[in-house]
Structure formats: C-alpha cells, structure tokens
C-alpha cells in the first residue's frame, strides 16, 4: 500500500537520522519540561516549554529540535519573532530552566520534518550554534517588550452583533479567542 511505502521510507530516513545524530555520543532528552522566570512590564513572568528533543553534545552545546509533520517556519518568520518556539526554548535553557541540563548552552536550533515522501525527511536549521544565544536573547527581549493589557471579562463577552457565522470570517486570525471588534475589519484587540 501507499501508506506502507511511505512508512518504510520514513523509517529508513529516521534510522539514518538517529545514527548520524548519535554518532558523537551526545545525550538525547525527549519531551522534557523547562521553565524560567523573566520580567515582563516589570512583573515576573514564567515562561514554560516542553521540548520535543534536546541533544547535549560532549562539548556541552545543546541542539534544540522540534519535529514537524507539516512545513517548518522560515528563517524570516523565526527572526521576526512570529515563530519563537525554538528561540524561547533556548532562552529557558540559557537561564538554567531545564533541571537536568543546567550546564548546557544552546547549540543549533533545528526543525525536523518527517513525511516519508521524497525526501522522506529533512532537517532545517534556523539558528547555528554560534548564533543561537543571540537569537534567544532577541526572542526574550521581544517577550519582555510585550505590553500586557487586562480586559474586563464583561467586555470580552459583550457584543451588540448577533452571533452569526458571517462575522466570524473576518480578517482576524482563525484562532483568535475573543469576539471581533464592533466595526470590522480591524483585528480583535489583545489577540
């Protein structure tokens, strides 16, 4: 079957990937949780992460990997702060937020895509080891610049517009968790 062929191709690619990644004796840490407290607007803010995989090489550098079934964010998206998963995970690592990896420093920031198609998988580095600390610091600075506004619950749930599907198809993000503004097409505030 087609699915069987894709699975076999993916399995071969993953086996080669694992052999290559483990060749230097690095330790592999899968789905580990980390957290670190930072200041945002002068208040403590706890940033948490559950990393798909962190690989600590013998030299102490820790490559951070995120596995994707779809497309990986582009370098431009990562640098603009639209996809800060790897960079903020690196910031947590730099702050000693992964308990068993306190002495590690960020290495390469990499997305891994496994499809079984041609190619069956690929690694897309979004930050080399020599630039990942600076990228993490930049992502953290972006987080610290956020202006967090508290909106009263009554305001969030109030709408003079009838709840019809037509206004839900506005230009705001599909995953916005609040009602649209009173006069579209501007995006919801605070979302």
**Order of the strands making up the biggest sheet:** 1-2-3-4-5
End-to-end separation in angstroms reads: 44 Å
Helical stretch count? Answer: 6
Low-pLDDT segments, ≥5 res: 166-185
Q: What is the β-strand count?
A: 5
Structural class by secondary-structure content: alpha+beta
List keywords for this structure.
single chain; 191 residues; alpha+beta
What would you say this structure looks like, in words?
By secondary structure, this protein is an alpha+beta fold. It has six helices and five strands; from the N terminus they run αβββααββααα. It has helices spanning about 1-20, 75-80, 85-95, 130-145, 155, 165-170; strands spanning about 25-40, 45-55, 60-70, 105-115, 120-125. A five-stranded mixed beta sheet has the order 1-2-3-4-5. Helix 3 packs across helix 4 (about 130-145). The longest helix has 21 residues, at about 1-20. The radius of gyration is 21 Å and the shape is globular.
